[in-house]
Amino acid sequence: EADIYQTPRYLVIGTGKKITLECSQTMGHDKMYWYQQDPGMELHLIHYSYGVNSTEKGDLSSESTVSRIRTEHFPLTLESARPSHTSQYLCASSALDGDEQYFGPGTRLTVT
Amino acid sequence: AQSVTQLGSHVSVSEGALVLLRCNYSSSVPPYLFWYVQYPNQGLQLLLKYTSAATLVKGINGFEAEFKKSETSFHLTKPSAHMSDAAEYFCAAAVSGGSYIPTFGRGTSLIVHP
Description:
The complex is a heterodimer.
Chain A: E1 4-7, E2 10-13, E3 19-25, E4 31-37, E5 44-51, E6 54-57, E7 64-66, E8 76-78, E9 87-94, E10 102-103, E11 107-111
Parallel strand pairs in A: 2-11
Antiparallel strand pairs in A: 1-3, 3-8, 4-5, 4-9, 5-6, 7-8, 9-10, 9-11
Chain B: E1 3-5, E2 10-14, E3 19-21, E4 24-26, E5 32-38, E6 44-50, E7 56-58, E8 64-68, E9 73-78, E10 87-94, E11 103-104, E12 108-113
Parallel strand pairs in B: 2-12
Antiparallel strand pairs in B: 1-4, 3-9, 5-6, 5-10, 7-8, 8-9, 10-11, 10-12
């Protein structure tokens, strides 16, 4: 069973708040990813990392930032949440190029 | 840029019937291909993957998929549907030109009727 964790699982916050979504994995994977998932849509890549101190933006500009100070930890921060950020956020990791990804259970975010 | 197309946002079958979920990719080189399943309030989990070793790939829970280069397809099948198969299924493709970051389809919701 994949050991990748996300907290919180559910979050309701007001507009303008700063929030951090946590993601941790215990598999020692170098590659980690953040996706935004909306019903009936493909997963949109927000950010990814190839290892410590490596972060890249994906194809979806979500006004968020990430950091990768430790291999196991890849938090996502929204500096000022907006209703358009309401979505499910999925974190994933993989070991090598072409390998399958292991996904966390997701954080469902609602911004009021 | 590569793309992944899943035909049919919803597929409905009776319990015991054949399951067929369609996936087509656009890539000039054979990609790595994946099928994932997502149950409500959970993340995605791998069903099976194609990495060029064999065109017919067997996965978990009785699912299998066949890679057809001429049709750029990777359709998912299961001979006999079970109620527990009801879930969202995603097809994904990864190629070296895209840094091996997977591109996902929009998903197909499988509905199983008793």
